[in-house]
Amino acid sequence: MPPAADPSDPSDAPSLLDLDDLRARFRGPLLAPSAPRFDEARKGWNGLVDRRPAAIIRCAGVADVIAAVRLAGQEDVPLAVKSGGHDFAGKSTSEGGLLVDLSDMDGVRVDPEGRTVRVEAGARWRDVDHETQAFGLATTGGTVSSVGVAGYVLGGGTGYLSRKHGLALDNLVSADVVTADGRLVTASADQHSDLFWGLRGAGANLGIVTSFELRLHELSTQILAGQIIHAFEDANDVLRFCAEYLPQAPEALQCYPFLLKLPPLEVIPEAYHGKPALDLVVAFAGTPEEGEGGLHELRGVGDPILDGVFPQPYTAVQQTFDLGMPAGVNWYSRAQYLEDLPDAAMDTLLAHCAQIPGPYSSAYLEPAGGAIGRVDPGATAFPHRTAPFGFHVVGGWSDPAEADEVTAWAETLHAAMVPFSTGGVYVNLLGVGEGEDRVRAAYGANWGRLVKVKRAWDPDNLFRGNQNVPPGG
Ligand SMILES: Cc1cc2nc3c(=O)[nH]c(=O)nc-3n(C[C@H](O)[C@H](O)[C@H](O)COP(=O)(O)OP(=O)(O)OC[C@H]3O[C@@H](n4cnc5c(N)ncnc54)[C@H](O)[C@@H]3O)c2cc1C
Q1: Number of H helices, E strands in the chain
Q2: Predicted confidence (pLDDT) at residue 168 exceeds the cutoff of 80
Q3: Which of 74, 225, 345, 407 has the fewest CB atoms within 10 Å, measured from its CB?
Q4: How far is CA 471 from each of CA 219, 221, 434, 464, rounded to the nearest angstrom?
């Protein structure tokens, strides 16, 4: 038996795999580094992460996932798992080892009567939204349509619908999971309930989910949504209104206050191009008529330079930011939950955002409350139920010369907001270079129970190429 391999150590893994011998075990293609599609398949969304697995199995079905898990367990080959590949920290690829790529398994089947949808692990939110909206239904999904369903649901899942319908993981009815011993089990409230508890927040640690059953809700195919942009000089007053109003606003309303540099778009007055501004990204989960009432108060605040709120297809709303957060750019992410948003926090935020570097960087608040807060913090592995706001700083650059300035800005702003933090972080927003203490902060008081679940389902830590919860605690 070869020694246990470290997934981050390039020297360990490549020689462990004889690909020609292994191909017969799989229905999907097993890609060697010389294969034409290898380079595309090894990359994730974050250009900052550049790793080369020894081989990539593009799974064609559950049997391939089982075969990959058994192979990794028997030969002690490091394993990485990729569904949508949007992990900010790049955990869905590895240096050496076997990358289990689920992106070809992207089937979506809606049960309109039962109001559920069965989603294969490789599907992305644009696939799910397209299928569910054909029936006037939807579930909480990511606000960029290329985000994968799997990583998103298994870590939490927030979006325009989460204040009304809960996190994505609150809408998980059941999941099919290939476990570390190579079995396929179904986890739900009634079957393997400890696994089901852990999957909802720390799923990447407990197995490879091959499909999800998610609860659906009625949602009109046109909703009122868009952006209300305020000049930076007015950001102070508007942000103070948001701090009070948003946590107790109607649950169908979601509004992300974004601080960013305005792009040179025709709809934005030229004098503001390239200038920092406060962009309220809003959506109302109801009919456009209901949205008119629900958004009235927010639209009446201050004197925006643009009120770009209008009825539009929900599927289009879900794609609004696709172009603004492109794959391949280098991304530095730091996040935390805020206890509160006192004046000092807003002053800090605005002082740093006056200096936002480059066209890709931003900082935003994500109001929580509503259905998210009605779930007990111990009911699932995801503990952050009471914080009124999530806070996320994203630094992006494509020119390497900008790397230092952008990272320093993001790091400094993140650190300056720590005094207002709960100390917790959303696991799905952990970025490159974060340590074990931050993974613990993602699970807070649920850590002890999670370690026990990990020990029961993955005692040898086969699934460790992730934000890892070691079975030893
Ligand atoms: C542009 C962008 C927008 C985003 N918007 C939102 C948002 O609106 N709301 C929100 O909550 N989050 C958002 N996120 C964060 C998002 O939730 C995470 O990046 C999430 O991990 C993406 O899922 P994925 O399948 O694409 O990830 P991947 O990179 O494929 O995987 C992420 C992690 O999950 C593991 N994993 C992947 N598939 C499986 C599986 N089938 N079984 C077990 N483990 C698996 C991987 O090993 C890895 O550790 C956004 C991220 C980006 C980059």
Answers
A1: 14, 18
A2: yes
A3: 74
A4: 41, 45, 20, 10
SS3 438: helix
Query: What are 21-73's pLDDT values in tens digits?
Result: 899 999 999 999 999 999 999 999 999 999 999 999 999 999 999 999 999 99
* Cβ–Cβ < 8 Å for 397, 408: no
Residue among 219, 227, 333 at smallest CA distance from 272: 227
CA of 124 to the centre of ligand 1 (A): 10
Tokens 């004889």, residue located: 18
> Which numbered atom of ligand 1 lies nearest the CA of 46?
53
Per-residue pLDDT band for 20 (boundaries 50, 70, 90) equals: confident
Q: Whose CA is nearest to atom 38 of ligand 1?
A: 83
Distance 204 CA to ligand 1 centre (A): 10
Nearest alpha carbon to residue 228 among 277, 266, 161: 277
Residue 321 CA, closest ligand 1 atom number: 1
Q: How far is the CA of 155 from the centre of ligand 1 (A)?
A: 7
Distance 459 CA to ligand 1 centre (A): 24
Instruction: Please give the C-alpha separations between residue 199 and each of 79, 162, 173, in angstroms, as whole numbers.
Output: 18, 18, 11
Residue pair 255/246 in contact by the 8 Å Cβ criterion: yes
Is residue 451 within 8 Å of residue 469, measured between CB atoms? Answer: yes
Which residues are paired to 256 by β-bridges? 281
> What pLDDT shows up at residue 9?
39
Q: Which atom of ligand 1 lies at the shortest distance from residue 121's CA?
A: 41
Give, using CA atoms, the residue closest to atom 15 of ligand 1: 428
* Residue range 143-158, pLDDT digits in tens: 999 999 999 999 999 9
Q: How far is the CA of 148 from the centre of ligand 1 (A)?
A: 6
From 154, 392, 429, 463, mutation site for ligand 1 pocket: most ligand atoms within 8 A of C-beta: 154
pLDDT grade for 15, boundaries at 50, 70 and 90:
very low
Which pLDDT belongs to residue 18?
Answer: 77
Burial of 58 (0-12, 13-18, 19+ CB in 10 A): buried
For residues 71 and 16, what is the distance between their CA atoms, to the nearest angstrom? Answer: 11
Gyration radius from the chain CA atoms: 22
Residue 200 pLDDT grade (very low, low, confident, very high; cuts 50, 70, 90):
very high
pLDDT of residue 19: 83
Q: Is the dihedral of CA 368, 374, 377, 378 positive or negative?
A: negative
CB-based contact 410:330 (threshold 8 Å): no
